[in-house]
Amino acid sequence: xxxxxxxxxxxxxxxxxxxxxxxxxxxxxxxxxxxxxxxxxxxxxxxxxxxxxxxxxxxxxxxxxxxxxxxxxxxxxxxxxxxxxxxxxxxxxxxxxxxxxxxxxxxxxxxxxxxxxxxxxxxxxxxxxxxxxxxxxxxxxxxxxxxxxxxxx
Length: 153
Known about the structure:
Layout: H1 8-28, E1 32-38, E2 43-48, E3 53-56, H2 69-72, E4 76-78, E5 83-86, E6 91-94, H3 95-99, H4 106-117, H5 122-133, H6 140-152
Antiparallel strand pairs: 1-2, 2-3, 4-5, 5-6
């Protein structure tokens, strides 16, 4: 198999473009100024260079769920402030991903969603009881029929 070679001119051009993109990213993307674990609230607190503060529970984050407070307190800001890391836990996350609510792999996020949907509360239990008195949840075909009837009226 032949090796692909890049000319010096092409390399210089691509390097200059990448440098410009990196410089722009450093000016526009929020970066971490400080990060710490607050034992009292049980949350991670990240102060950003743009003046905002991002607070989140470690239980949401793959690799941090179930970690001891001492381990969570060892959070590091990875240069140049675009990621957070916990070396002992072998957990590293981009700040951009965390800010977008991406706390792990697709499978991890799907499991978070599944757990979130199964949360019980007094309000949810009361709604279920009321629905039960009315005969339970309507079948999908009944819902579709009633929706179509309302639209045509």
